[in-house]
Amino acid sequence: MILLKPLRVGVIGCGWIAQNVHIPAYIENPKSRLLAICDTNKERLEEVAEICNVRNRFCDYHELFESNLIDAASICTPTPTHSKIAIEAAKHGIHTLCEKPLASNLKEGEEIVKAVNQSKTKFMIGFNYRFLPNHMKTKKFVDAGKIGKPILIRGEVIEAGPYRTDIDEEEYAHETEKRIGAFFDLGQHLLDLFIWMIGEAREVHATFSTYMDNMTVDDTATALIRFKSKALGNITVAWLDLPDYQAIADSRMIEIIGTKGKIDTEFFGPSLYFYSSDSITSKIRGKIRITPVKFNPKVPDEALKWSYKKEIDCFLESIIMDRKPPVTIEHAMNVLRLTVSAYESARLKSAVSSE
Q1: CA distance 142 to 226
Q2: Tens digit of each residue's pLDDT (9 = 90 or more) over 277-314
Q3: What is the CB neighbour count within 10 angstroms for residue 254?
Q4: Contact partners, residue 28, CB within 8 Å, separation at least 6
Q5: Alpha-carbon distance 75 to 208, whole Å?
Q6: Which tens digit of pLDDT belongs to each residue from 48-98?
Q7: Is 250 exposed, middle or buried (0-12, 13-18, 19+ CB in 10 A)?
Q8: Domains defined for the chain, CATH in brackets
Q9: b/e 336-348 (16+ beta carbons within 10 angstroms → b)
Q10: How far apart are alpha carbons 178 and 185 in whole angstroms?
Q11: What angle, rounded to 10 degrees, do the helices at 133-143 and 300-320 form?
Q12: Alpha-carbon span 228 to 197, nearest angstrom
């Protein structure tokens, strides 16, 4: 069934990701009308509503769902709240885009899957990095065999996360616990891209650490992954506020090595670097820089902002065209399963199966 009218949308949670991504994207997209926002912090709710000119305001998501005002919702709240909101949305027949991760643990994730399948609503997880044009082109190159069979994949991301300068140090512990850990927070984006690009994982061996005083969760992590294809993967992540983007650009890269070449694709976009032993151009020029969709390589934020808009447009399109979202709930569970296995591996100090 194709809807002729814009979808009525609500956003739950009015933090940074809602204010800077979801709310403006829904307002700008002709496929949607932002009719309501919700946040338990009434002062923030009122402030955001006034700035964005949203009339319908709720402090309780139950009241929002019962209002019959919306067809779809974005969940932009802390990770531990995702499952109860997502399940309630499914019960009310509301299509949902949920910021990653799917849930805090496997039990919660399975409960969401059950509720969504019973409701037959569309459900999508916000893995926006796969919508970056350079990552999309990377996947096309890998699928087409342009670098042969992938044998190694490596990703490293250094991001401020909860250690941003605009957050008081007194709030660090609370902010880190909301994100569960650096691997749960940053590692999931890399896991999503790895599985999407080269297939499902078989096992993981992880080691976590905490360098900041008085923290109870990991703020640095590394994991070795064995995929079903026999390829090996390595992920390194850390929460660290290093503001000079260019200075740590090499620490925000995904490298895929195949039997006939390699691809380096910038985690935040917009470019990738391609080499293939089968390519005449590569033989003449060596590694080639490719920047899709005419983004400015010196302004990576342009591509990142575009990826968020594309993600939300694809979510809306899946509802309107009645088709599977590009990031399915089954894939989100695979990523969550591998993430939980990594934490179990770090606890046991040994490899853990993710199957």
Answers
A1: 18
A2: 887 777 777 789 998 877 877 777 788 899 999 999 99
A3: 25
A4: 309
A5: 28
A6: 999 999 999 999 999 999 999 999 999 999 999 999 999 999 999 999 999
A7: exposed
A8: 7-121 (3.40.50.720), 130-298+336-353 (3.30.360.10)
A9: bbbbbbbbebbee
A10: 10
A11: 70
A12: 13
Q: Is 52 within 8 Å of 21 (Cβ atoms)? A: no
Angle between helices 188-198 and 329-348 (to 10 degrees): 120
Residues 192-222 have pLDDT tens digits of 999 999 999 999 999 999 999 888 999 999 9
Tens of pLDDT, residue by residue over 145-185, are 999 999 999 999 998 889 988 888 888 888 898 899 999 99
- What per-residue confidence (pLDDT) applies to 21? 96
What is the chain's mean pLDDT, rounded? 93
Tokens of 105: 């643990």
DSSP 101: P
d(CA 202, CA 229): 9
Contact by Cβ (8 Å): 269, 290: no
193: which 2 tokens? 């891209």
Q: Which two tokens stand for residue 19?
A: 């204010």
